[in-house]
Amino acid sequence: MTNHQKRLSVPKTWPVERKTDVFTVKASAGPHGEDGVPLVVLLRDVLGYVDSTKEARYALSEDSILVNGEPINDEQRPIGIFDIIAFPGREEYYRVFPDEGGRLALTEIDADAAESRLGKIEGKQQVSGGDTQLSLHDGTNVLVEDGDEYSTKDSIVVDNEDKSIVAHFPYEEGALVTAVRGNHGGKIGEIEDIDVTLSSGSNTVTVSTEDGEFETVEEYVVVIDENFTGDDE
């Protein structure tokens, strides 16, 4: 199987130029599905910390780069929305956050903020033993004793070390959200209205921003709080 991906066919969220070269690195299997961008692309094309895949492999072999608190040794490991990338030796920490247009970008954060990550609940089910499993947008799961207080489309903040939930943001009118897909990707505002579709189609949400409002399908928005906008820097 090839380790390369044609630039013209990469997801629109990838922060790569499509017409400079024919190929870029292909993401390995892992979280975020096909939307995940290979770690080496962020290290090379966004941060400029390495010039090649070989240099990225060497940096990773030193356990000098953490993703969501874990050392990574695969330069093709897919990175996606709300992941935390840490360089402890440099004392630099970043959160993956959509910019205007929905492309993945890196927002610099402090060390305390890098200790946890945001996750959108996309599914929940009861498992053996009575606990509830919450399935998050990146493919990871979190177990909770009482699942009644959590609903799909809510967001939670998960501690990177012990995987405990440290904050919970319900999906409801008045909630602060960011659009992560579509024509309004990267925009931030408060949910003004949730229009429930009675057919099999998607519900739509109206989001009020400082510059007006926009409408999108609810699958494209994620509940956040002010600490995840990048305005706290």
TrEMBL record:
GO terms for molecular function: rRNA binding; structural constituent of ribosome. The keyword Ribonucleoprotein applies. GO terms for biological process: translation. Residues 91-165 form the Small ribosomal subunit protein eS4 central region domain. InterPro entries: Rib_uL2_dom2, Ribosomal_eS4, Ribosomal_eS4_central_region, Ribosomal_eS4_central_sf, Ribosomal_eS4_KOW, Ribosomal_eS4_N, Ribosomal_eS4_N_CS, S4_RNA-bd_sf. SUPFAM superfamilies: Alpha-L RNA-binding motif. One of its GO terms (cellular component) is cytosolic small ribosomal subunit. Residues 3-33 form the Small ribosomal subunit protein eS4 N-terminal domain. PANTHER family: 30S/40S RIBOSOMAL PROTEIN S4, SMALL RIBOSOMAL SUBUNIT PROTEIN ES4. NCBIfam families: PRK04313.1 (NF003312). Belongs to the eukaryotic ribosomal protein eS4 family. This is Small ribosomal subunit protein eS4. It comes from Halobiforma nitratireducens JCM 10879. The lineage of its organism: Archaea, Methanobacteriati, Methanobacteriota, Stenosarchaea group, Halobacteria. The gene is rps4e.
